[in-house]
């Protein structure tokens, strides 16, 4: 697996790749190498035909178009790296990714959100922290990586906003009274207990006093979804989808939602219009006497 380690170092040196992207590429390439091991082939002996065979194998095993499309991108980056290292001599990989169907994102209803947010106990260290994280995620629609990446200096409770920082541009996102109250309580009661190092800048901490991880927060969301009895395949990202859809349902301007979400292309934000329009149609059909 030395080649994977070298590939990881190569990706980390590329400033345009986020850590999430790097880890996604690595997962894809590890699966590809596992496939090569199963058929008894070395990387240096692979060709365009090998890659095509792998993609066909993914299709036969029922992988989604989005998974296959991502794998193709990962393989193109990987083979560029291999060619630069003179490990393979394959020309540009000419494989078009499958067309992706733009299905409406899955969301929680407003009642389900209320159930989820009411689950954390507000009389212990963990519950107060978890409540603050869930409230802030739903209040702002930020990505999980952005939530756990927040520092103390990125939040202004007095004026009701957070600063979400990334490499391309920072964005200021307003937060409502529920999130302000939850975060304020966390800062007053939970964080002082969790922060073993007074120099720690991270806003949300785990019980080791370190910055909360994606995996740690994923477990938190799954736990409270079970407690709330929400029978959906729930991930932290579903709160981002719910935030955007609920705003648009209540009349928010799509471009304003785009700015808060940090979407470069408005067509990405317009996916949430599909969900809102479906709901409006259902309301119309139930309420209109001649529907």
From TrEMBL:
Gene Ontology cellular component list: cytoplasm
Gene Ontology MF: a single term: tyrosine-based site-specific recombinase activity
Sequence ranges assigned to domain Tyr recombinase in this UniProt record: 103-285
SUBUNIT field: Forms a cyclic heterotetrameric complex composed of two molecules of XerC and two molecules of XerD.
NCBIfam families from the UniProt entry: PRK00283.1, recomb_XerA_Arch, recomb_XerD
Family membership: Belongs to the 'phage' integrase family. XerC subfamily.
Name recorded for this polypeptide: Tyrosine recombinase XerC
The organism of origin for this protein: Caldicellulosiruptor changbaiensis
């Amino acid at each position: 697996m030395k080649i994977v380690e070298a590939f990881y170092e190569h990706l980390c040196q590329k400033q345009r790749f986020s850590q999430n992207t790097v880890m996604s590429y690595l997962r894809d390439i590890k699966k590809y190498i596992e496939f090569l091991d199963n058929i008894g082939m070395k990387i240096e002996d692979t060709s365009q035909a090998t890659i095509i065979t792998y993609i066909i194998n993914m299709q036969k095993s029922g992988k989604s178009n989005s998974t296959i499309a991502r794998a193709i991108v990962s393989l193109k980056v990987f083979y560029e790296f291999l060619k630069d290292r003179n490990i393979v001599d394959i020309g540009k990989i000419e494989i078009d990714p499958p067309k992706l169907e733009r299905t409406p994102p899955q969301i929680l209803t407003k009642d389900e959100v209320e159930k989820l947010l009411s689950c954390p106990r507000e009389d212990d260290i963990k519950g107060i922290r978890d409540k603050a994280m869930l409230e802030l995620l739903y209040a702002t629609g930020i990505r999980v990586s952005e939530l756990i990446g927040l520092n103390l200096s990125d939040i202004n409770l007095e004026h009701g906003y957070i600063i979400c920082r990334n490499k391309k541009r920072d964005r200021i996102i307003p937060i409502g009274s529920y999130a302000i109250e939850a975060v304020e309580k966390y800062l007053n009661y939970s964080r002082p207990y969790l922060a073993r190092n007074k120099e720690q800048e991270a806003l949300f901490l785990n019980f080791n006093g370190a910055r909360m991880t994606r995996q740690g927060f994923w477990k938190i969301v799954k736990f409270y979804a079970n407690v709330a009895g929400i029978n959906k395949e729930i991930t932290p990202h579903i709160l981002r989808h719910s935030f955007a859809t609920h705003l648009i349902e209540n009349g928010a301007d799509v471009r304003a939602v785009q700015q808060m979400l940090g979407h470069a292309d408005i067509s990405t934000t317009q996916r949430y219009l599909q969900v809102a329009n479906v709901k409006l149609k259902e309301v119309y059909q139930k309420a209109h006497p001649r529907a």
